[in-house]
Specification:
With about 230 residues, the chain is of the alpha+beta class. The protein is built from 9 helices and 5 strands.
Length: about 230
Amino acid sequence: MEKKIRINEWAEGDRPREKLLEKGASALTNTELLAILIRSGTRNMNAMETARCLINKHDNSLYALVRTPIEKMMRIKGIGPAKAAALAAAFELGRRGQVPVERPASITSAREVADMMIPMLKDLTYETCWVLFFDGARKYIGREQVSSGGLNATIVDIRMVLKKALDKLSCELIIVHNHPSGSHKPGRQDKLLTQTLKEAARMVDVHLIDHIVIGGSRYFSFAEEGLL
């Protein structure tokens, strides 16, 4: 039987970690980067081979892999709970790293909202809904997640949304939710939610500025389309 060569027996320039330190992360392939996160292999496969198997099981698509639940990653031989958790943590840090830390003084367009929210929502495998709050001068106060659901829907409690707005002394709102399917087109329930929230908010002197639907890297704005 052919003896397996461990990564630490490779030429130094071929080892993923040493290669990264010498040439930078951008010089590494997806498989090499995954191997660094996986760290160690099994008796029959080194970390590079385990990484290659992991990405092959996802059609060689890093996009598909980062959206994979931990339970599915653990079906790959050599990927146990600790390694799956490390990979999921790295993927989540990558998503969060795309979101600017700076708090904008004001937001003047749906495009600005989309630029803020797309990095957070585009890779989620479940639907979630956020509300952005503004004061009477349309100064941005902050954002908060108000619901998280399944693959095709999430239930938004309008009373809770309005209570949060009043607690924050917010006069205007923008609601944002994602479609895990990748479609940015609103459905019938999205349109119903928009109108119901708009009318309910008006009763407590709060204005719904927009409802934005995120699908992948695209967005749909009810305000831009004249539906508010």
